[in-house]
Amino acid sequence: MSELSTAPELIASNKCFGGWLKRYKHQSASTGTEMVFAIYLPPQAQSKPVPVLYWLSGLTCTDENFTQKAGAQRLAAELGMAIVCPDTSPRGTDHPGEHDSYDFGSAAGFYVNATQAPWAENYRMYDYVVDELPTLIEENFPVTDQRSISGHSMGGHGALICALKNPGRYQSVSAFAPISNPINCPWGEKALGGYLGDDRESWKAWDSCELIATASERLPLLVDQGEADNFLSEQLKPEALKQACEAAGHPLELRMQPGYDHSYFFIATFIGDHLEHHAKALGLK
Amino acid sequence: MSELSTAPELIASNKCFGGWLKRYKHQSASTGTEMVFAIYLPPQAQSKPVPVLYWLSGLTCTDENFTQKAGAQRLAAELGMAIVCPDTSPRGTDHPGEHDSYDFGSAAGFYVNATQAPWAENYRMYDYVVDELPTLIEENFPVTDQRSISGHSMGGHGALICALKNPGRYQSVSAFAPISNPINCPWGEKALGGYLGDDRESWKAWDSCELIATASERLPLLVDQGEADNFLSEQLKPEALKQACEAAGHPLELRMQPGYDHSYFFIATFIGDHLEHHAKALGLK
Q1: How many domains does chain B fold into?
Q2: What is the span of the domain harbouring residue B210?
Q3: DSSP state string for B175-207
Q4: Lower CB count within 10 Å: N or C terminus of chain A?
């Protein structure tokens, strides 16, 4: 049973590029746990509300990987864009097996709503990211209701499904090395099987390639993928995303980047292009 | 007894902003231990030798803090500047007390040559940073002999003393929140007392304020210091640096930055200005 959501409580604050990077904790109604998130408020937010880019991180991450390693605050400060980084799973619970592997349970919530015990009680990261967190952000911070979404790997796919399942909710979407077709790769099969159970039909509501076929809104997808990414062929499968987009007539800019791997050095290199993409959609350019 | 130096052996490689961030290990003659360092080679290094900025990190750090958190590779790739990041102490030894505190022993070498047992055998970070590492870099990588040096906190002071003690060796120097006057602050007293012994006169050869008084080369100092830095008044003492420079006529641009703390978010905010400072001295602008 979920407890009610509580107001965000500040736990850390650092001035950065003239704005402020702040970390908060709050009780989440979606997950029934305490959740931590980070928000970067650019200098412009001191005088007017600014739009928000939501960033969803990948397996093993917290809210801190992106804020420390992507170098995004520099351009966000120039553009006047807030960035909100949620955690990658509920924390503080201790279900059997929850902390035993890097690709399931803690830090691996996959941005779905689990239906299987014991996960269904807390692993509701989709509701948290799509509904609860934006509501909390828009009630408590100097931001507008203009939202974009991006992420990396598990979070890149999370960004795609959040946008595809919610027409009109985001102005733009992009992804770095997303797990494009989780119903057909080991990471996805493990996660969706665990959170959703054995009925593979039920997984399709959480797979970007499936969702693209029937999407009612066709926001252009910007996707960067390193060609030297160790997970490329077995887990990420950008060709499946490409085929799904071609079949459905969904606009996709898939940029294969020679020599780049799965790390934050890859993200840092191209995050500027993604922020520019979102800034245009958010009316900042 | 030191073993001979060995050639660098690649341990990691990531493409980043069109160049390559590489980590190497090698046996150091200075420290008698294996040492790890990182080098960022910008795209320009694929066709011609480039000058090098040496970055010295602070207490608790390794070569990785700067490469992951400062966001320096973006501008280094634009400017055509390599960046070399050594570790902050020898590793792999286990002297009594070596790993007991964050501000002495491992990850706290203070860029001095220790004279006291048991530290004198391995804690020779000054020789390593000033002589051995640049020789190794210039023999093994596509770089020129044009060098600049910068760093943070313990490493900010390290950069100052490396430059002040070696006229002509560096084209430029800068520092973030340096421990400006270690002979007069708790961090410095603990480190210099441990590595150099009780004779405080011997410490003066490793204190930037003392060295400024008699410097034979007066490279302009660029120093950024956050006004909200928790270590400002007790440990960092920029006013001592300012007084030493004023007394000696040493050029100093000390920039007090309102609201900024001691973190890498502070460094990331101003690293661009420092790279521009070094780029001019290195003939890149």
Answers
A1: 1
A2: 9-279
A3: EES----GGGSHHHHHHHHHHH-S-HHHHGGG-
A4: N
